[in-house]
Amino acid sequence: MERRHLFDHAVQAYDAVRPGYDAQLFEDIIEYAHIMPGQRIVEVGCGTGQATQPFLDRSCRITAIELGSRMASYTRKKFADYENLEIIHGKFEDCDSEPGRFDMLFSATAFHWIPPEVGYPKARRIIRSGGTLALFWNRPSVNNPEDPLHRRIQSLYDRFVPEWSLKGQKRDPGLAQQFANNLNEIEAYGFRDLKFKLYRSTRTVTGEQYTQLLSTYSDHRSLGEKIRNPFFHAIQETIEDCGNRLVIHDTVDLYLARNP
Predict the structure, then answer these.
(1) How far is residue 103's CA from residue 163's CA, in Å, rounded to a whole number?
(2) Are residues 8 and 29 in the same domain?
(3) What is the mean pLDDT of residues 98-117?
(4) What is the pLDDT of residues 44-99, one digit of tens each?
């Protein structure tokens, strides 16, 4: 099973513990895109709707495309009172739409699952001329070497999944390089007037909440139960032993661009 299909087996946890996004982020998107009631917006990978509602509340007409059948069904029921939302179960790559139909395409922590040579050209085709591309990702981290709890959690990763630590040391370009790569990629596919902004925040979770959050990550879900269960148990116990409070540092990177 492809890793991007694994989210569909953690719908309840996903909706319960995946964080939303800063209200200022949505204000920045709305200002850049000149969002008005009635405009057509397509969302790629709506999940359980963490980024959907702010645009629904602006009376935009939203077409949300969701790969997971359970996710799509759950979110359809969650927003059943909104008549301005259509949810399509399927791959963005396979969903057809007439050229220039949408005023904006946005995707929250999902667009990386689509091959860029497919996703960006299709986005350009279905966004009207002068319309907006808005992509953003949340990149949570507990990797703070100055925090004893964070160090203890890292030691558990080194113990249970040492190959992840080795892979990260060899291949991780760092966030700054990732941001630059994303900007270059968006521009390379013909989008213009790029704007980039970071949003930083922290949140505090319990051991149970943190392991529940980990269960919504595709790489953690892909671990076999013989590793995942004792790994998660050890993480939860460690957090509980340290006061049952873990600080997560969130960095959200936003990319805005226009379709010429």
Answers:
(1) 43
(2) yes
(3) 97
(4) 999 999 999 999 999 999 999 999 999 999 999 999 999 999 999 999 999 888 99
pTM of the model: 0.92
Range of the structural domain that residue 123 is part of = 3-140+173-202+248-258
CA dist., res. 211 & res. 156, Å (int):
13
pLDDT band at 218 (very low <50, low <70, confident <90, very high): confident
In angstroms, the CA 213 to CA 241 distance is: 19
Task: Note the pLDDT tens digit of each residue in 159-196.
Answer: 999 988 665 544 556 889 999 999 999 999 999 999 99
Residues 8 and 121 in one domain: yes
Provide the token pair at 169: 């040391």
